[in-house]
């Protein structure tokens, strides 16, 4: 089984807010270089994998909103494969009503970004949202989004603030996007401390060197089993994410840099994230897939790195 825990969708970049839309136009000057997450491209991108979590986004601060009805429309484009994560802004006065609508629409979690929504993670309104999520069994997904716009408050993305949240709501399931980058080590400390906190690789899988460093640190802190695969689609496709992950040992070829055993990388790729996060598959019969769909096609895997030395194999065995 292969699960992509973070894929984004929108109808047009303006739904991400005027600053993010302008940044996309500036960084990808040619129209064909810009991401176009249409229902068709989403369905095609998800073809090689088993399931995906499709995320919405809402930020009053950034004038951004991917509406709930668009998330449900995108999910219907890939039936039996997708679960929805609603974008909720705790600073929006009507957030409770929006949450009710999301639950009624079948969303399994909420997506927030304290930095991009402009609130301290322990703000009283946010704590009420967390309480609702815990009571209703909803997954809480947190994204850094620190480079999204000038208005983003970077200090609010520091994952150390989430320690109080995790202690206050001990059964609330949380996933920190992108391993909290650039605060990777504090995120790993949270994973080590709290059994109901996970992290994924969205936003890192298209950055080989930070990805390599993050995986090494997760192995050294003995929390690699809590790291989940995520592409961050449309910025990266799931098959690209898998290929990049299998290729990270390329940095170590011909050097004294450490490598990560390919088996440990395979465990990240094929981790049953839905079971870990206590989420039911969108269709119960989807689990009865043929073997060719349960594992990523070998044609998209990167060529394997050199076999690890005896000392490397021993180190990986100890770390796992």
Q: What does the model show?
A:
The chain has 14 helices and 10 strands. It has 320 residues and is an alpha/beta fold. It starts with a strand and ends with a helix.
CATH architecture title: Alpha-Beta Barrel
Mean pLDDT: 86
Oligomer: single chain
CATH topology: TIM Barrel
Largest sheet: 8 strands, parallel
Strand order of the largest sheet: 1-2-5-6-7-8-9-10
Number of continuous helical runs: 14
Radius of gyration: 19 Å
User: How many domains, as an integer?
Assistant: 1
Uncertain segments: 284-315
The overall strand count is 10
Shape: globular
Order of helices and strands: EHHEEEHEHEHHEHEHEHEHHHHH
The end-to-end distance, rounded to whole angstroms, is: 20 Å
Please write out the topology.
Blueprint: E1 3-8, H1 18-27, H2 39-45, E2 51-55, E3 57-59, E4 64-66, H3 68-76, E5 82-87, H4 95-104, E6 109-112, H5 114-117, H6 124-136, E7 139-142, H7 162-168, E8 174-176, H8 184-193, E9 197-200, H9 208-220, E10 227-228, H10 238-246, H11 262-269, H12 273-276, H13 291-294, H14 310-319
Parallel strand pairs: 1-2, 2-5, 5-6, 6-7, 7-8, 8-9, 9-10
Antiparallel strand pairs: 3-4
Features:
alpha/beta; two-stranded antiparallel ribbon; single chain; 10 strands; 320 residues; 14 helices; TIM Barrel
How would you briefly describe this protein structure?
It contains 14 helices and ten strands. The protein is α/β, with parallel strands linked by helices and 320 residues long. The protein starts with a strand and ends with a helix.
């Amino acid at each position: 089984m292969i699960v992509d825990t973070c894929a984004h969708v929108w109808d047009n970049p303006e739904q991400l807010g005027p600053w993010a839309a302008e940044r996309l136009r500036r960084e990808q000057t040619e129209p064909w270089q810009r991401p176009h997450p249409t229902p068709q491209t989403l369905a095609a991108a998800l073809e090689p994998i088993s399931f995906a979590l499709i995320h919405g986004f809402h930020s009053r601060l950034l004038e951004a909103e991917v509406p709930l009805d668009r998330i449900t429309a995108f999910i219907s484009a890939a039936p039996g494969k997708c679960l929805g994560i609603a974008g909720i802004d705790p600073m929006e006065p009507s957030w409770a009503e929006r949450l009710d609508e999301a639950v009624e629409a079948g969303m399994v979690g909420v997506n927030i970004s304290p930095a991009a929504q402009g609130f301290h993670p322990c703000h009283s309104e946010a704590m009420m949202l967390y309480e609702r999520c815990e009571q209703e069994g909803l997954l809480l997904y947190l994204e850094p989004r620190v480079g999204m716009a000038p208005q983003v408050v970077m200090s609010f993305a520091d994952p150390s603030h989430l320690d109080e949240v995790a202690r206050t709501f001990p059964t609330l399931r949380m996933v920190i996007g992108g391993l909290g980058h650039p605060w990777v080590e504090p995120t790993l400390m949270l994973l080590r401390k709290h059994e109901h906190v996970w992290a994924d690789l969205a936003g890192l899988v298209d950055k080989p060197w930070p990805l390599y460093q993050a995986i090494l640190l997760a192995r050294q802190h003995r929390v690699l089993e809590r790291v989940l695969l995520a592409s961050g689609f449309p910025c990266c496709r799931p098959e690209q994410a898998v290929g990049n992950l299998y290729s990270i040992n390329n940095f170590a070829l011909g050097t004294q840099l450490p490598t990560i055993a390919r088996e440990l990388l395979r465990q990240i790729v094929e981790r049953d994230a839905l079971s870990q996060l206590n989420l039911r598959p969108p269709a119960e019969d989807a689990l009865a897939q043929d073997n060719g769909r349960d594992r990523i096609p070998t044609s998209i895997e990167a060529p394997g790195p050199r076999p690890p030395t005896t000392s490397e194999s021993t180190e990986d065995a100890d770390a796992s």
